[in-house]
Fold Imidazolonepropionase.
Amino acid sequence: MDHVMGYQYDTLIYNVRIASMQDNGLPYGELPPHAIAIAAGRIAALIPCDDALGEVFQQANTVIDATTLIPQNEGDKTKLPWLLPGFIDCHTHLVYGGNRAEEFEMRLQGASYVDIAQRGGGIKGTVEKTRRADEPTLLNTAIKRAKRLCEEGVTTIEVKSGYGLDLDTEVRMLRVAKSLEQHLPVSIQTTYLGAHALPNEYAEDPDGYINFICEEALPHIASQNLANAVDVFCETIGFSTSQTERVFSSAQKHGLPIKAHVEQLSDSKGAVLAAKYGALSVDHIEYLADSDIPLLAQSGTVAVLLPGAFYYLSEVQKPPVDALRAHNVPMALATDFNPGSSPLASILTAINMGCVLFQLTPEEALRGATMHAASALGLHDRGVIEAGKLADLTLWDIETPAELAYCINGHRPVAVYKEGKHV
Ligand code: NIG
Ligand code: FE
């Protein structure tokens, strides 16, 4: 809404520079000086900072001069902190049992990710440990991991299942993921990733496992509202395009949007299939062919780049960033936080890696972890600073937003607001 005289706001924040991420033609969507009024967890109004602002102060229960929140600022009113939308980590697998430090050592000695997977390690190793983990253990470890993200200003996290594969453990993972909302100031979006690996009990019957996903697991998960989306690992060491298509069509039948791990290790044409099904996102995409990119543009699918996995697996094939940019395919960035290919508990490092490894500009990287990450989750109520959106906000002691992409471990937000509450 626009500012209304007489309306009572919960909070008013002023003396900030706003990187709104709106598409207003300016870098980072910067706005001219505005105060931000918050009511009922949302951005109620953006109010121009002019002589009349003083009168608006009476309309807010709490008025915050953001310069007072900067440590060692010594009352300097000329150095304004920057306000950004809360970060959205739109691709993680942060609920799991155990860890894969041993495999990391094996890889350093020359074993490849694919070798390890084919020898029954990799995702399957984590499946064993996750099946054995009880709910409190899964929850406590997930809280520790998610907390690291929140400390950097992440206010929404997508969490995938996929380390249980059987219905019981998948449901447990999805419940644990959602319950993080009770322990941390964060919104959780859950994704059912049953088609992550073939469980040992179906080793001789891969299509039987797809039947189980489509006829038992997915209908149950959909009917219990346990997932916001469905994902598939479409890959030579994952599932074929025809198996993937069966899962997509079942997801569609149950009204769940689609996301997909595609073209991470080979060009399996999973992205073409995902586009045909109107997927919210295609993720990884190092091996995506330039000629398939127009299809993503047509289907409005977001390209989610995961530089953490590229880095940890010492990959050399980069995603086709120039061609994605040329076709205006929105690019999101995420941590892919998982125990095998990307044990990365830092969205700011993912942002830095997106620039250094994939040549994104700092602006693209920051938009990728805010507005485009929101689109990758089909969320239209966050990711930009605009009246009506959730008041998920971060405040930074920086001179330019590019600093957040440039420096590794140099910054933490000086304040985080989750739905208007200072957390
Ligand atoms: O996004 N590619 C498949 N899934 C994860 C890796 C999971 C694992 O290795 O445990 C990924 O990279
Ligand atoms: Fe992943």
Observations:
- The two ends are 25 Å apart (CA to CA).
- The longest strand covers residues 187-195.
- Residues 93, 122-123, 126, 233, 261, 264, 309, 336, 338-342 surround N-(iminomethyl)-L-glutamic acid (ligand 1) (CB under 6 Å).
